[in-house]
Amino acid sequence: MPADTIVTRFFKQGELRPTAPAYYTKVGSRWKPTNWKTYNDEVRLAARALMALGVGEATGDKASCVCILGFNRPEWAVFDLAAMAAGGVPAGIYTTGSPPEVAYILEHTEATVVLVEDLGQWKKIEQERGGLPNLKHVVLMKDVAAVDDDMVLTWDDFNARSSEVSDDKLQQRIDALQPQQLATLIYTSGTTGPPKGVMLSHDNLAWTAQCAIDMIDTGAQDCVVSYLPLSHIAEQMFSLHVPATSGMQVYFAESIKKVADNFKEVRPTVLFAVPRIWEKFYAGVTTKMSQTTGIKAKIADWARDTGMEVSNLRNYGLEPSGWLAFKYDFFNKQVFSKIKAALGLDRARTCVSGAAPISTEIVKFFASLDIPIREVYGQSEDTGPTSFNLPGKTKFGTVGPPIAGVEVKIADDDEILVRGRNVFLGYYKNQAD
Q1: CA-CA 20 to 30 A from 33: which of 92, 180, 360, 410?
Q2: What's the mean pLDDT in 162-177?
Q3: Where are the beta strands (DSSP E) in 170-317?
């Protein structure tokens, strides 16, 4: 029986809900859905194509790596999942990287194939190709003009290579995946030196994805907007691993500039945002509030006072009653619902902030507007979360208790020690660290 991995879970979604929407992309003025069966087929096709290009072949202790350089698009997800299905190891590269920075990760992974978003990203690689002897193929995402270069394949040309490998051979690769096998590499930002490749196993990803689902209580009825860098484990968890496990629907943002508009159109039920996003929301709402006067300003103040009272109760697992419940219902209709709709958060059940510290003032501000923000603490080295502020057990100014199954201790030198199935395998080619 195949091991429980993100890959096997992903294909299980295609069996359980073949016609249900898996992801959406913006086409013209509407969001076009792609169902789980089609998504499964896209990944199987790409996995066979990668196998035809030599990805996933056993080479001793050396991982068979591929890289991805581009903004959040279905091709990113397809390529990542396909690489794992083929027995390979995907690694994302930040789109803002300079040519030498891109080349560093390509060289460090010894990637043989890289997927790029557009010709601008291809130019970075072309500039550094002389120092990348292992790189054999550059694949362009959909609708990118062909390049007259033997190294470069269009998306269609790449997928056509799938005809060289049978689906049975792909299935053998999938069935052979092991829980402790290296699944993906997450490169740190490199603020204190060159980026390090965080090695995450199939078990790391699968176990943490289930923990995330248990914490935020998400399922196939939920949807999320994919917009933060997919080279980061947090966005991968929300855009790839949790959906593969729960069936949650993913909307791929049009671009980083249109994210705010996309929020309003999609109205996600789950939102993960870094503090900078919450700060922008905060600035927008407070600016709007400062422009109100008279009775409208008074109503806003009363609403926030009521919202904070309710938030304080709910942080202890309690619900408002009597006069407070009446006031909350009134202000929810007159104030809270309108602010949520303006931000695209009127359907949001779970809002999470992570990747950096967030101001307690901002967390309390949104709590007073009936938008509770759950802080999460973690890092790539533990597949994302270490601790999380659970509903009914939230304390402002903290990042909550350790997630279930994770132990946290403070060493004598104040180093934070973490133990659990989410803890990584080590750093690629530098496990001594």
Answers
A1: 92
A2: 97
A3: 182-187, 197-201, 223-226, 249-252, 270-273
* Residue pointed to by tokens 């949104």: 366
Distance, CA of 159 to CA of 149 (rounded, Å): 18
Whole-angstrom Cα distance, residue 239 to residue 233?
10
Segments of 209-367 assigned E as strands: 223-226, 249-252, 270-273, 350-353
Secondary structure E strands in 62-125: 65-69, 89-93, 113-116
Burial class (CB in 10 A: 0-12, 13-18, 19+), 378: buried
Residues 6+ apart with CB under 8 A from 10: 40, 43, 81, 244
Q: What's the sign of the alpha-carbon dihedral 75, 202, 376, 94? A: negative
Residue type, 156: D
Nearest-angstrom CA–CA distance, 406 and 109: 30
Per the confidence metrics, is the pTM higher than 0.90? yes
CB 54 within 8 A of CB 117: no
pLDDT for res 190: 61
Amino acid at 315: N
CB-based contact 53:113 (threshold 8 Å)? yes
**3-state SS string over 330-344?**
HHHHHHHHHHHHHHC
- In 3D space, the residue among 368, 364, 360 whose CA is nearest the CA of residue 398 turns out to be 360
By CB atoms closer than 10 A (0-12, 13-18, 19+), residue 12 is middle
The predicted structure's pLDDT at residue 193? 80
CB contact at 8 A, 433 and 207: no
**78-134 pLDDT tens trace:** 999 999 999 999 999 999 999 999 999 999 999 999 999 999 999 999 999 999 999
The string of pLDDT tens digits covering residues 360-370 is 999 999 999 99
Burial class (CB in 10 A: 0-12, 13-18, 19+), 401: middle
For tokens 């104030």, name the residue: 335
Banded pLDDT at 430 (limits 50, 70, 90): confident
User: Among 194-208, 228-242, 286-300, 371-385, which stretch is predicted with the lowest mean pLDDT?
Assistant: 286-300
Fold for 6-215, please state it: Rossmann fold (3.40.50)
pLDDT computed for residue 431 by the predictor: 62
Distance CA 338, CA 116 (A): 40
Amino acid, single-letter form, for residue 57? E
Mean pLDDT of the chain: 94
